[in-house]
Design a protein that fits this description.
The chain is α/β, with parallel strands linked by helices and about 280 residues long. About 35% of the residues lie in helices and about 15% in strands. It has nine helices and ten strands. Strand 6 and strand 7 (about 175-180) form a beta hairpin. Bound molecules: glutamic acid (GLU). Glutamic acid binds near residues 11, 12, 13, 218 and 222. The site of glutamic acid has 7 residues, from loops.
């Protein structure tokens, strides 16, 4: 058997300034890649072209370089690969596992509220968002001019491909675990929208496969999302990487750091005189 090098990646979205949480994730990936004698990639996840800007991308790469990271060039920018995501989407469509829906977030909210008024809870996904109510009607040609989303028929997809939906979670300094997941928890996720021809879930699995990523090291906020990624990998016939979900760096209030809130951005810390080494210490590396 050929022993392929380990491939790690840090895959931020340039929709705000990188903060200490990103620094930790990027530095950890880099350190693990170097220890393994492997490769380290940076991928720009900019499918949301309204929130991601070239300026934010430049600032992000500047922060990463300042931290001392070195990555392979050219970086993969997702917005330049919509065609590859479309191909993956077509193969799911060909399996009959997708549908078009026109319900807006507001429509869903109204359906959920009406249901909850009857005293019954509406199921929610692991991020707390209400599960999509499902296909209410087939869209005709006139509808297709309006805003629509292409969604996965998750239950049908699970039945089509069959479980288990498990992955190997690396435990550094301990015993790795096999994690059994249930992609149904996410309901009918969005695969593409009219204005964004892909989605986070779809593009992340396609890109990790295209780039030969062998180790996905990312925050524990994406732990549950991995279940959906395993389902999509199986449906698309993609290899399954190893995973490690690391603890999140929390703010003083115990809350998850946010790109939009100030105070812990790498740029601000640098301007305030912090050195890359001090940042490493601040995140416990
Ligand atoms: N782009 C995602 C984010 O910034 C991370 C994707 C991933 O690591 O799988 O949260």
């Amino acid at each position: 058997m050929i022993n392929l090098p380990s491939v790690f990646r840090f895959a931020p979205s340039p929709n705000g300034q990188l903060h200490l949480g990103h620094a930790y994730s990027a530095l950890l990936n880099y350190q693990l890649a170097m220890e393994a004698g492997g490769r380290f990639l940076v991928r720009v996840e900019d499918i949301d072209q309204t929130r991601c800007t070239p300026e934010l991308e430049r600032a992000m790469l500047r922060d990463l370089a300042w931290l001392g990271l070195k990555w392979e060039e050219p970086v993969r920018r997702q917005s330049m690969h919509f065609g590859e995501f479309a191909k993956a989407l077509q193969s799911l469509e060909a399996l009959g596992l997708t549908y078009r829906s026109q319900l807006s977030r507001g429509d869903v909210r109204r359906i959920v509220e009406a249901h909850e008024k009857t005293g019954k809870a509406w199921p929610r996904d692991p991020d707390g968002a209400p599960l999509f109510p499902g296909q209410t009607h087939e869209l005709d040609a006139a509808d297709a001019d309006n805003n629509f989303a292409i969604r996965l028929k998750t239950q049908a997809a699970i039945e089509h491909i069959g479980g288990p939906f498990e992955w190997q979670e690396l435990v550094f300094g301990g015993t790795d675990k096999m994690i059994e997941s249930d992609p149904k928890k996410w309901g009918d996720v969005v695969l593409a929208r009219r204005d964004t021809p892909t989605s986070y879930h779809l593009s992340v699995v396609v890109d990790d496969a295209i780039q030969g990523v062998s180790h996905i090291v990312r925050g524990s906020d994406l732990y549950e999302a991995t279940g959906m990624h395993i389902l999509l990998q199986k449906l698309l016939g993609l290899p399954k990487p190893l995973y490690h979900h690391h603890a999140l760096i929390l703010g003083e209030n115990g809350q998850k750091l946010s790109k939009s809130k100030n105070g812990t951005s790498i740029a601000q810390l640098r301007q305030a005189g912090a050195t890359p080494n001090e940042i490493r210490q601040m995140v416990g590396l």
